[in-house]
DNA sequence: GGACAATTGTTGTCGTCAACAACAATCTTT
DNA sequence: AAAGATTGTTGTTGACGACAACAATTGTCC
């Protein structure tokens, strides 16, 4: 067993079948402790759950919110442009927009300069709705701040700034 | 339009259909900039892709790695204990273990003290395999460090420590 | 100007993953 | 012993990322 990375001796009771009750939080994570990806994944799950819960009344999920926000700030974008900017596949964006268009929050307008593409716009209803979504999202963000601390949240945003 | 959260005037060319070419990275994210969840999501996608690529030869995904690591460090755990510790649903863990057991990395041993549960163990083969996975995972972690910087990575781990 | 390559939106498939619900077998409680 | 809780399992649903193929349209190159 070539000892290269984190060698960890199996903890207490490496026996078999039988075992004493384990207090669930005294279970060692071993090498996982040093992996940013693991921590990030757990945090992301928490943060999405809070977002979904906080925006539960208006039934808006994180991805939908990101699409609405970008369209709201950049009216006339093509689907391709939105997809690229948000790192969403254009195939997936189609369904997202279908849903948002059915809810009368967004409309696809056929572009006259490029008849392949659509120009994305918020409806009037979509704009007032987005304003409300933004208030709720800000509330969610305060939950995040309360959870990890104001300074930590800002440092986090700073560290991950160039992934956005 | 009650100005509560981030009011942002639609950028250039709020017109309709026709529009000039947009350079794709000059598209404003508006309120998204201030949301930790968005940055975390984008980062998590990047980090998982790198993990999957780096461990591509051995065909191990992040979740599988986390399961193997925890079982390796805590032999004899029940499926329930593993699931709870990793925040995985026990229903999902069943399939994960089915796969890992078929690959002879893990074995379920019927517990004698509680005949409902199984005691999870790595096979001998599983232990040597895990050692290799850990080396590759460490390599992946160096990619992360190279991407966001050594100090930032450590700060990140520290900030998110209690989500693990 | 006309053939060929690239782009846009769309449809469809596949695999991962979280969230539930239901169930049989087995403890635990009272 | 009866009622309730827990464990592993199966199945369903929906969000999501990754691909592949396609028609319509645009762009390029000779």
Automatic annotation (TrEMBL), chains A, B:
<dbReference type="Pfam" id="PF12802">
    <property type="entry name" value="MarR_2"/>
</dbReference>
<dbReference type="GO" id="GO:0003700">
    <property type="term" value="F:DNA-binding transcription factor activity"/>
</dbReference>
<dbReference type="GO" id="GO:0006950">
    <property type="term" value="P:response to stress"/>
</dbReference>
<dbReference type="InterPro" id="IPR036390">
    <property type="entry name" value="WH_DNA-bd_sf"/>
</dbReference>
<protein>
    <submittedName>
        <fullName>MarR family transcriptional regulator</fullName>
    </submittedName>
</protein>
<dbReference type="InterPro" id="IPR036388">
    <property type="entry name" value="WH-like_DNA-bd_sf"/>
</dbReference>
<dbReference type="InterPro" id="IPR000835">
    <property type="entry name" value="HTH_MarR-typ"/>
</dbReference>
<feature type="domain" description="HTH marR-type">
    <location>
        <begin position="26"/>
        <end position="164"/>
    </location>
</feature>
<dbReference type="InterPro" id="IPR039422">
    <property type="entry name" value="MarR/SlyA-like"/>
</dbReference>
């Amino acid at each position: 067993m070539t000892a290269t990375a984190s060698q960890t001796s199996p903890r207490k009771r490496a026996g078999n079948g039988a075992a004493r009750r384990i207090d669930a939080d005294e279970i060692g994570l071993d090498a996982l402790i040093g992996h940013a990806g693991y921590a990030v994944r757990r945090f992301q799950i928490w943060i999405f759950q809070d977002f979904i819960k906080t925006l539960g009344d208006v039934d808006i999920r994180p991805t939908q919110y990101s699409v609405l926000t970008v369209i709201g700030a950049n009216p006339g974008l093509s689907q391709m442009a939105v997809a690229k900017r948000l790192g969403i596949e254009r195939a997936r964006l189609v369904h997202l927009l279908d849903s948002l268009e059915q809810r009368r929050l967004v409309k696809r307008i056929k572009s006259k300069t490029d008849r392949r593409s659509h120009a994305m716009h918020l409806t009037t209803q979509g704009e007032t709705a987005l304003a409300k979504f933004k208030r709720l999202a800000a509330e969610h963000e305060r939950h995040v701040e309360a959870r990890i601390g104001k300074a930590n949240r800002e440092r986090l945003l700073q560290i991950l700034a160039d992934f956005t």
